[in-house]
Amino acid sequence: MLRKAESLLLAASLKADRRLGMGGRYRPPAPVAVRVASHPLRSATVLAVPLAALGGSTFGAFTDLTRFLQAVGLGIGMMLFFALLLRLERLTQLHYKRVGYASATPLHPRPPRPADLRRALGRLGISWVVCWGLLSLVFWGAERARGAPVSWLFSGAFMGVVLLIPTALGYRIERKRQRTRPPGSGDQ
User: Fold this and answer.
1) pLDDT tens digits, one per residue of 51-98
2) Which residues of 92-103 are buried (b: 16+ CB within 10 A; e: fewer)?
3) What are phi and psi of 178, to 5 degrees?
4) Dmax over Cα atoms in the chain, in whole Å?
């Protein structure tokens, strides 16, 4: 029964790969990926124990027995989840080893963006993060000065939404302008 479930899971994974355009792997996995996937339970334990300890320490699991048992349950759940994913990766590796790897490099569905566009998007991302940080700090300070207790998490999330709205509107306006512009006419 376990073999049947593994084969169904592998078939679903390979079908998802094909649907996403990743029908063949083009090079073998790195040796560390093979090593980690060849021992899924051991590797999952190494991943899950520190995460469960960190999660347990955040909600005080080391002072209360009930919370400690919850942290142990969290660790076991994460371990089983990671082991399942690693087992699926190992099955996928074995499948492509048996079938063979694709000999050609994949064709890109769209051409890569020019370097100047990448730099512009990088600068936009950096400026967005700087504006978000400064506005979060100003909002947090203004709310603290008013006497309203506001957390860093709330101020960051609120300023993220505040900055996301004009960014999305600007993107939408630009897309609409590009659709109405005749082809071949550049910005002059």
Assistant:
1) 888 888 877 778 888 888 888 898 999 999 999 989 988 888 888 788
2) bbeebeeeeeee
3) -70, -35
4) 69
Say if CB 52 and CB 78 are below 8 A apart.
yes
Contact 136, 150 (CB under 8 A): no
Give the dihedral sign, CA 81/47/42/72. Answer: negative
Query: Could you tell me which of 77, 81, 84, 79 has the C-alpha nearest to residue 8?
Result: 84
Q: What six digits make up the tokens of 149?
A: 């207790």
Other CB atoms within 10 Å distance of the CB of residue 39? 14
Tokens of 88: 């699926």
Token duo for residue 65: 């027995």
pTM above 0.90, yes or no: no
- Can you say whether the dihedral through the CA atoms of 57, 60, 62, 68 is positive or negative? negative
Which pair of structure tokens corresponds to residue 3? 């073999």
Give the Cα separation of 149 and 144 in Å (integer). Answer: 6
Lookup: tokens for 75: 């660790």
Gap between the Cα atoms of 38 and 93, Å rounded: 10
Chunk the chain into consecutive blocks of 10 residues (it has 188) and report each block's average pLDDT, rounded to whole numbers.
79 75 66 87 91 81 85 91 90 81 54 58 72 81 78 80 82 77 55
